[in-house]
Amino acid sequence: MIKRKRYRRKGWMTLYVMVLAVTLVMLITPLPRFTTDYATLILSEEGDFLNAAVSSDEQWRFEPLDSVPDHFKKALITFEDQHFYSHFGVNPLAVFRALTQNIKAGHVVSGGSTITMQIARMSRNGKSRNLWQKGVEMLMAVKLEMFDTKDDILKLYATNAPFGGNTVGLEAASWRYFQRSPYELSWAEAATLAVLPNAPSLIYPGKNSVLLKDKRNRLLTRLFEAGYFDKTTQELALLETLPDPPGAVAAWAPHLMNRLIAEHDRGRFKTTLSGSLQKRSVQIVNDFAAAYKQQGINNVAALVMDLDDYSVKAYVGNCADPDRINGGDVDVIMAPRSSGSILKPFLYAASICDGTILPDMLLPDVPTYLNGFTPENFNKKYDGLVPAGEALVRSLNIPFVMLLKEYGIPGFYDLLQSFQFSTFNRSPDHYGLSMILGGGEVTLWELSRAYASMGNMLNGEGRTFDIFEPRLLMGQDKHKVASVPEITPGGAWITLDKITNLTRPDEEAGWHYFTSKQRIAWKTGTSFGFRDAWAVGVTAHHLVAVWVGNADGQGMPGLTGTSKAAPVMFRLFEQLNEDGGFFNTPWDDLTYYPVCSQSGELMSPDCDFADTIIVPAKANYTSVCEYHRTIHLTADGQYRVNSSCYDPNRMIHKRWFVVPPKFSVYYRRKDSNYRDLPPVMPGCGETRLLSFTYPNKSQKLYLPVDFDGKRNPVVFEAAHEEKNAEMRWFLDEAYLGSTRYNHQMAIQMDKGVHVITICDLAGNEDKIRVEVMNEKE
What we know:
CATH topology of the domain at 31-38 and 50-239: Penicillin binding protein transpeptidase fold
Radius of gyration: 40 Å
Helix content: 25-40%
Shape: elongated
Number of helices: 21
CATH class of the domain at 31-38 and 50-239: Mainly Alpha
Strand order of the largest sheet: 7-6-16-15-14
CATH architecture of the domain at 31-38 and 50-239: Orthogonal Bundle
Strand content: 15-25%
Oligomer: single chain
Distance between the termini: 121 Å
Number of strands: 28
CATH superfamily of the domain at 31-38 and 50-239: Biosynthetic peptidoglycan transglycosylase-like
Largest sheet: 5 strands, antiparallel
């Protein structure tokens, strides 16, 4: 009895020791661990491959899949481990069978490893193959089975199994060898990948293809025999060819990939991009870039957005440039570039919303000199006065400089800050009036965000101009960046309606070639020195933004928004197949105003023709027409008179559209129907109007000097109310000569202060004081 108890106690002690030993062994046995240094994979919203980049250790290894595709799972288990779901990490029967086969053969012909044991071996890359290491792998496999589910173990295998060369993991192999997602693999393709990890250094696409195909076909036969597919499927699968050796990885979105790596580190990114649209957009950009390159223009960038959810559908950061020469590696979408005229619609919208102007109010368009700033229209022509809406469509510079002066530089700077243009990061005084002509920089990304938000405000139910960040990744929430209270829905609608592509003036040469069924609100821009060409178009559902130029900032004659960027934009719009609808009209934010048909200003008693226009409801307009006045004429209508020199009972009273002399000299050239005021009847003594039109009074002039040291002359311009008036010119009281009809005088001046005087034969005069400076002063 005592002996029996001793034996029992020893048995329990032995069991405790064994359990303790096993526990200690399991505690010290590590779980398989793999690197988390993944490659980068860029997918479209449909899951199509767009771009990829190897990990930092030069491996094609992607982040784990959510699940293992069914075809590959069945092929792998059939080939490697038929009892996978029934063992605990080690299959004793398989180990015994492998040991027997190896002893008979005299060398290793079978390892008897389960899928779990293979995972353990893969995690210990570089370890020698012997019985001791095999034992360690068994322990690791058992421990892994204790902590992970079977499905997790399969995912671990699919993520880290070698598939030849530097291709690691099922997804990397699927994209590299078959150019498709692992979830789209055929039975033959899944079987090919299932047999590759068995000997990845010996057989893979392009190496030992006969042996690879034989192993694949034998596996397909086993899958058929297991009842996974029918005879027809087997026969078709056996006919499938093996993939070619992997070539260069397709690059449909390289700049976006680099941006996502910089912002989020490496990994798998499912973007909002449309796979087909992205590829078509890249091809379109590259086609235009190839043509432009012959003209010394090397870079093109484009962005396409869906306004319904702010998702980016195409992102072409630059044209294809595999050698990365000519700045092809620069993501121009994110690069600050001179804005040119592309910001004018925002100034126009804000100005009509706060009452600074009415939509078609006349703006000055004459040569202008403002504190050292001498803006010019692109075509070097001037209309004297031009309706604001027409100035916007034609992108005239002088009227918008004068409008910015009226609106206020600080106010427009604050408006741009509301848009969150990060590139406007200096004081308003730094930019000055050049702010509206490209004196500041913008990025294509932030510019697209601003235009898209202005258009989308009209599609939604909200009545605030909210700025939303465009979405690049699936699953990202719509993110509000800021609000722009200065622009109301009514002002946005009027602005976008003005810049639709229904009509364009001849000054924008070639616009009529850009025909489209869609109603597109679009604006172009060209920076100083022909360095940047912009085109942005908005419809009810999409935005397309394009930049063309040289990434290094080199200008090129002929590089304009209309001639170079607009054609790319319209070609991209053709890919969108919209129905031609326009933005919803925000009637609750619009009202009607009566205005003078010629001046665009509020009706005055002297106006003879009126129009009713739509304006923002909350705007407060006070500018009454100043161009119409009632004049008094002799009975025959030949002369102007007044009551001091003519019988009032015999007078004729007429309403007359009068353009001030400063503008009339140019306005006459534009409007052939413009009628000059009748002359004053001799003896009536009414003052005749005359004035300088260029330069402005009391300003400094910087005159270039020729090689011989002689200063170039300055061409002064003046205007007289009477078309046939003769004017005499004086420099510092020295007579220079006279002019009639076209009042221009080239005057040679030395350094210093000078006074130029003009007078007509009736004694009316005007004077201007200028200071001539050295060119370098």
